[in-house]
Amino acid sequence: MEILVCVKRVPDTAENEIEINSDGNDIERDDLVYSVNEWDNYAVEEAIQIVDKVGGSVTVVTVGDDESEEVLRREMAMGAEKGILLSDDAFEGSDGKGIATALKAAVEKGSYDLIFTGAQADDGAAQVGGMLAAMLDYPYASLVNLIEPGDGKLKVGREIEGGNQEINEIELPCVLSIQTGINEPRYVGIRGIRKVASVEIPTLGASDLGLDAGSVGEGAAKVRRVDYFMPEMGEGAEMLEGSTEEIIDKLIELLKAKGGLK
Amino acid sequence: MDSLLLSPATYKLFGFFPMVIFSVLIPVAAIALFTFILAKRLAPIVRAKPDFRFDRPVERVINVIKIWLGQYRHPRYMVAGVIHMTIFFGFLILSIRSTELVFKGIKEGFIFPGLGGILGHIYYTLKDYASTAVFIAAVVAFIRRAWFRPSRYSYPDSYGEDHTWEALLVLGFIMTLMVSESLYEAVAVAQQVHAGISPDFISPLTLGWFFEKISVHAGRSTLQSLHIISYYVHDLTFFTFLCFLPLGKHFHVITSLFNVYFMRLERGNIRPVRYGVSDEELDDLESFGVKKYDDFTWKDILDFYTCADCGRCSDQCPANFVGRPLSPRFISLKGRDFAFEHYSLFSDFTKRDEELIGTIYSEDEIWSCTTCGACEQECPIGIEYINKIVDLRRGMVDDGNVPQTLQKPLQSLGKRGNPYGKLEKKRADWTKELEDFEVKILDKKETADTLYFVDSVTSYDERMQSIAKATATILNRAGVDFGILGKKEKDSANEVRRFGEEMLFQDLRDRNTDAILDSGVSRIVTADPHALNALKHEYKDLPPVEHISQFMARSIAEGRIRLKGICPEEPGKVYTYHDPCYLGRHNSVYDDPREVIDAIAGIRRVEMVKSRDRSFCCSGGGLMLFYEPEEDERMGVVRVRMAKEAGANVIVTACPFCLTNIEDAIKVAGLEGEMEAIDLCELVEQHLQ
User: Fold this and answer.
1) Do A15 and B425 touch (CB under 8 A)?
2) Which one of A9, B82, B90, B265 is separated from A56 by 20 to 30 angstroms, measured CA to CA?
3) Rounded Cα distance, B431 and B454, in Å
4) Which of A29, A191, A195, A249 is the best mutation test for B, with the most CBs of B within 10 A?
5) What is the largest CA-CA distance in chain B?
6) Is the pLDDT of residue B1 over 60?
7) Is the CB of residue A66 less than 8 Å from the CB of residue A22?
8) What's the CATH class of domain A2-220?
9) Is the pLDDT of residue B2 over 70?
10) Interface ipTM > 0.90
């Protein structure tokens, strides 16, 4: 089975203190550290496990700048065989549809039975997977937390509201968005990344993909960010301040006062 | 007048068959078999990975004299220790006699060279008492193993039947040897009495002496039969026992001498990924750590062979105590049984391709170890565990097999230099809360004589920042010109290495080393024993490092720090000191912290039963805080209970991780208000004059 996993480089929410910049149109990016989007790790791990079972290979792809190569290398250190970097100034400012357009072109340049995305990205809108499937005219299943490979089709499990599980059969080729918890992604250390440091990663631009520069990037974007802010404190909301101990004490006091604790 | 008894060398069975044939055949056959078994047992050692243990012969010989010959660690378990020492010293004495007996069966009247004269008189007297003492010790041990069955010898269900039978069989061999040797001699002397010649001297109140007193009433033919029978019973038992040794836990009789000679000389260090491969060449290695059996070093295999199944390691292991799936002795025993099975004595060697994790060892078993070192401290014959555990972890890390809860902190250590993923620039934030003085941050502009290495937990954890402030205050009051590295400081990575992430450890070590050397300081002090351990044993070419407790003890002695007495409004406070593993066992700092506490006039301090080198781990530091083990209860809770039993209500420790674990444990145990924990630096700060 040939599997393509779409991954993304994002600011790591666990390791950053996210603050809005002074212009109010983006977050402060000076001290940020980046890593691969958490959901994508589960998608790559799942792809590797499927290939271990039924054979084939895993390719990882991302749309981004040169720095995005590090997330491709990380996923290759996990066990993906190939990496593809889609990078072009023309992609700057793309909305979800623009990203999906670039990915669609990459899919068509290869021959994949199965395409994974993460269910969503830390900084995203969970839209690219569905759009990509629609553009490719492939069947699509979202929030997948179980996959059983079969002949020409897959059984996929989805967690639905209320914790119920649903199992669907889906025909190949298809696009799946992968939910966390589907597996336990393996650890990647410095040594693993160094091992794949010299593997060639092809960079494809808009022309390599046969894309009209007008179909991607800021010009083609029909969704535009207009503001970026921390939500105002709503009515009834209260921020507790102080040291952890003080916050806990205040919280207990509040819970007791409102009858939540006896 | 009767003639003397015929010796085994001249006696003829049924009047015609010379027994001397047996006297020759038995040793020749047995020694051939024994040599064959040993050669087979050597195979896995020869095939194992290298281990550099041929250096520093003087220290190694001193270890042999102290730990092997002197049985130095045995009295830590008094009853078993005394029994073992009796048998051990007895065997050493009787080895000459046993060898002599073998030759006596071939050549009548053979006497060991040098034992003809006065030396012989002394030796034979000594050996009479030795064999009697060994016999008594074996009887006591037999009763202890058969009836009293101390719990540390039992096997959990998952490991099958215990090996009591093996112990009893060997004690049976020993008793048989002692009785037959004494009887052989006693009946000959009895016949000398009958013959009216001056009988050989038998030491009074020994086994032989009793046998002589009883057998002197028997006739010549009975005595002759007993003489010959006891000789061959001794001969056969002796050689059966010899060939039985390499088949089980009694292999230690042969291997322990070598194991102690080659035991680790350093403490607090972890062995390299591969001996003979430099850090720069590590990238060329195909695989890291121990994944398959042949990845173990030859010393590991020797350790496996040497385990006597005495259970002392597991009896001291805190992980085993709280029901984690780790019992160090089974690390050894399972390793030994694997060798016995795959390097079979009487058939071809089988392939050893299977991954050890998932077959003989489990993931949780290997992650359960806090590397506290209690097992290695206890082992009377120098068996090691930490290096094997770390090497098995290196293998798992190399395969990406790391518990999910540890992956985030490891990733954060790589990106931010601390396991919490906090911003580098906030590493020195704790200094802003100091009002009386400023802490220098050693960058290009600032220099200082002393570096205070804070490390991650003390820098970032709100509660532990109080240790940082106390340490800085003490250094300031002692008049030390000191500073910290601030955002240039990274985690000391003591646990990163111990969790098998060697490359990340080396990366952090190198960054710290550069920052420390750039700062130009002439010495380093830290309040975190894990940092102390890493800087001292795992980094190279740094200025001298010491723990704050050592600094405080010296400063108090020299009068640079003065402490006031205990507050009169705090009567009823009884203090106890909890030895952190990385300060005590791994770095031998036991007395300094105690001296510091005792320097507070009027303080009441008690000792817990398990203290100093038998301290009970609080459940570990660094990455161990992020690991979620299977366990019945927390180590910290057990420790708090021990302090309570000692009559203490304040637990003083000298490690931020111990403080974290013990404070949590006090809450978990529901002893808030009744018990409290405090760091030594905080205690001293409160009593600064």
Assistant:
1) no
2) A9
3) 11
4) A191
5) 106
6) no
7) no
8) alpha beta
9) no
10) no
